[in-house]
Amino acid sequence: MACISRGLSLLTTRAEATGFVKGTRALIVGRGTAGRALSADVIARGGLVVGFLDDNMVDPEVLGALADVNDVIAEHRVEVVYFAIPSIDAKTVRDFVMTIEADHVEIAIIPRTYGILSKETVDIDDLTDVDVLDLVGRKPVKHDFLASQAFISGKTVLVTGAAGSIGSRLVKQLVNMSAARIIGVDWAESGIFFLERDLDEATNLELHVADVTSEGAMESIFAQHTPDIVFHAAAYKHVPLMQRNPIQAVNNNVWGTLNLATTAIRHGVSHFVYVSTDKAVNPANVMGATKRLGELVIDAVAVGSSTTFNAVRFGNVIQSSGSVMQIFRKQIADRAPLTVTDPEVTRFFMTLDEATQLVIQSAFVGEPGELYVLDMGEPVRILDLARSLVRAVDPSLTIAITGLRPGEKMFEELSYDPANVRPTANDKIFVVNDAENHASQDWLRSISELLGRTREYIMTPDALIAELRAMGFAIQ
Predict the structure, then answer these.
(1) How far apart are CA 202 and CA 253, in angstroms?
(2) What is the pLDDT of residue 130?
(3) DSSP string of 292-351?
(4) Would you report the helix, strand and coil content of the chain in percent, each value rounded to 5?
(5) Whole-prediction pTM
């Protein structure tokens, strides 16, 4: 197994960690645009490119296919391998890394991020060591950034959950999309404080500490700013925690959504996007049930409204707080066992940049009232992820099987019926037509009655879970 020298930092660039040593003998995987640009940069910095590996190109500089890596390393005394195919699928990356036998060889890889995918050239400073995202990520989706910018340009945009993972990245992307004004809203004071510090040079940003469940606060903010577009990313999302706090989950995720949506209608908002989750499909936990109820609230208020309501549903965001990736990162840093709940549990994954761009594009890619999902590829088995990390980072680490947590599913789904998913103009974004038993004439009345009791805290958590089950949700 190759020795990947990076200490405990999983995201430092190779240039930052070790500096580029002149005379380093480099092998570049991929002789495409990125590989050729990287080769020129290596040479300009005094390095020696011995050649390329490429499965799809014949050229005198191509020394073989990816499977020939060990022979090429030995024959050409390679010291570092640069993997320069940013669009490659994660399985190929994993298999390639596991193939390398020489212990002295360092490995670095172009990260599959928006910053790299949108650049025409790349240099050494763009490379990271093989890390969590590269080993287990999915083939990136390149969205139409120009279309997003044209949609956002000149508009006032409000983002809820602005201090969270999705919300803060949305705000950061919108700042650079020529929006007239971006209004960030979150109840988390510390998160808003740090977001403001990160974006202290932004002249088109205003941040508010406010709760989406407060009618007065939302009315005041909408009256002050009259937003054109709303991205509703605020939500309680951690499954075990919401399982123990179901009343708060309903109040925040369902009532907060209804409050925000009706306020948006009153103030003439043009487009409203609700950020949902794959856990809303056949939910087995309180969090998933509340997000499905939020989807149904959006579907109901959209009827007859001049505001265009849409929702977007996707899987796990690998950089988000509390995700399995972040848990693994901390466990690796602490040299603790990597915890996996079940050997067969699987999840869909996507990057934070993909998620936020999907949220933006879902506002205009299709028709009013549609629910979208992303082509997320094949689900990843979490045990495979953990094994890959152990082998790549520190073979002395162990893996512990802990058992499924309350409300946790073995696998997630993106729609109730895959046959009811159809494409949009963007070949990576699909429309979901979920016609299932909750879409009855009486369900909104039931939700309103439920909210009346949860907001007054006049029912117990057990009674609330029983009522969710009576509404058709198979809460564990």
Answers:
(1) 30
(2) 45
(3) HHHHHHHHHHTTT-SSEEEEEEE-EETTSTT-HHHHHHHHHHTTPPEEES-TT-EE-EE-
(4) 40, 20, 40
(5) 0.70
CB 138 within 8 A of CB 376: yes
Residues 6 or more apart whose CB falls under 8 angstroms from that of 112 comprise 86, 87, 133, 134, 137, 139, 140, 351
Q: Both tokens of residue 124?
A: 């050494």
CA angle 420/294/429 to nearest 5° reads 40
Phi-psi region of 15 (alpha: psi -120 to 50; beta: other; left: phi over 0): alpha
Question: What is residue 421's three-state secondary structure?
Answer: strand
Q: Has 142 been annotated as catalytic?
A: no
Q: Give the separation between CA 376 and CA 141, rounded to whole angstroms.
A: 9
Ranges of beta strands (E only) in 39-129 are 48-53, 62-64, 80-83, 106-109, 128-129
Q: What is the mean pLDDT of each run of 10 residues along the chain (476 residues)?
A: 31 38 88 88 90 93 96 95 81 82 81 55 53 53 77 96 94 92 97 94 95 98 98 94 95 97 97 92 92 91 90 76 77 89 84 82 82 74 83 80 82 63 75 58 76 90 93 88
CA distance 52 to 49: 8
Choosing from 155, 279, 291, 428, which is the catalytic residue? 279
* Per-residue pLDDT, 274: 96
The pLDDT, as a whole number, for residue 230 is 98
Closest CA to 169 of 127, 193, 199, 143: 199
Cα–Cα distance measured from residue 317 to residue 226, given in angstroms and rounded to the nearest whole number: 30
Q: What is the DSSP letter of 366?
A: S
One-letter identity of residue 283: P
Q: Is 372 exposed, middle or buried (0-12, 13-18, 19+ CB in 10 A)?
A: buried
Question: Are residues 173 and 356 in contact, defined by beta-carbon separation less than 8 angstroms?
Answer: yes
pLDDT for res 114: 45
∠ CA 333-339-344, rounded to 5°? 140
At 218, the amino acid letter reads: M
